[in-house]
Design goal:
The protein is α+β, with helices and mostly antiparallel strands. Helices cover 15% and strands 43% of the residues.
């Protein structure tokens, strides 16, 4: 199976390591631990934090090291923002959801192009019909990263650094539909899927645009026989269509949202529709959605949308 989105997530982790430099005053590599939280501010010179009235001239021992204000920790381990930290901006909660539905027109065609081209195909192939759909959603952190820029992620290493339980950011994924149509009378078989697939999010908000790089690996397993010849293989039909719908590239699960996609305070949604898999005509018809929301906890298990920090 081609797990191309995992490459994308590693690349973005490298980017995140660079972007988090502004949060703690030093660089980091993907193989190193993420920066530790800043020391607690006592709002005085010599506490290791450059805040309040302190500056490089009146408190060089704090401000020369690029200190910043930080929140105190509660017994539960979650950060309790101080007044100065709230002004500077603390992470807020968010959610990301995406879905895709693919319908494949069956029939005879060419071998097609990568990544859909069947192995060992030379002249042409009979394409089987497919009905596939899946959805995924996850809680994320929206982390301030300099002026007018935020990092968005559910990566467990990142959320744990901010005092949250990574288990609360574990994604929920589901294959909603998986059906196959064998168009040759001598062929029959089954298609099976796993509901629990990977779904990670890394992204940013900057210059009026939310960019979300998704990492997912939904996969279909098909097996059966044509006459006396048996077959069994794994495919990523839905994944390729999902990626093309979001980005135009079957190897890139990157989607963008702009202010035009704002449906309510703190809520963004876009629907993408595309025909893909040229063999020679496009036979895969895909509808995908991408949603993002800023939110706060109202009570246990219940969250409500709020205006995103860049709208405040």
């Amino acid at each position: 199976m081609k797990r191309f989105p995992l490459v994308a997530i590693l690349l973005l982790l490298l980017s995140l390591a660079c972007s988090l430099t502004d949060l703690d005053g030093r660089g980091a590599s993907p193989t190193e631990p993420l920066p530790t939280p800043h020391p607690q501010s006592e709002r005085r010179c010599g506490d290791g934090v450059c805040d309040g009235p302190e500056n490089p001239e009146n408190c060089p021992q704090d401000c020369a090291s690029g200190g910043a204000a930080a929140g105190r920790e509660t017994p539960s381990g979650e950060a309790e923002p101080t007044e100065e930290a709230t002004v500077a901006g603390e992470p807020v909660l968010g959610a990301v959801a995406s879905s895709a539905r693919l319908t494949r027109t069956p029939g005879d065609g060419s071998c097609g192009i990568e990544p859909w081209r069947p192995e060992a195909c030379t002249l042409g192939v009979t394409w089987w019909g497919l009905q596939l759909s899946a959805s995924a959603h996850t809680k994320v952190l929206v982390i301030p990263d300099g002026e007018d820029r935020w990092v968005i992620t559910n990566h467990p290493d990142v959320v744990s650094r901010y005092g949250y339980d990574p288990a609360d950011f574990r994604p929920s994924t589901r294959y909603r539909e998986a059906a196959i149509e064998f168009v040759l009378p001598e062929c029959e078989g089954t298609i099976s899927v796993e509901d629990d697939f990977n779904f990670q999010v890394m992204g940013t908000y900057e210059d009026g645009q939310i960019e979300l790089i998704l990492s997912a690996d939904p996969q279909e397993h098909i097996e059966g026989h044509c006459g006396v010849a048996g077959f069994a293989y794994d495919l990523n039909n839905l994944l390729y269509g999902w990626a093309v719908a979001l980005s135009g590239d079957p190897f890139d699960l990157t989607g963008t949202l702009t202010e035009a996609d704002l449906t309510a305070a703190g809520e963004y949604r876009r629907e993408y529709v595309v025909d893909t898999n040229p063999s020679p005509e496009n036979r895969d018809h895909v509808t995908a959605t991408l949603e993002f929301m800023c939110m706060e906890k109202e009570r246990e298990g219940v969250y409500r949308p709020i205006a995103c920090p860049w709208k405040r």
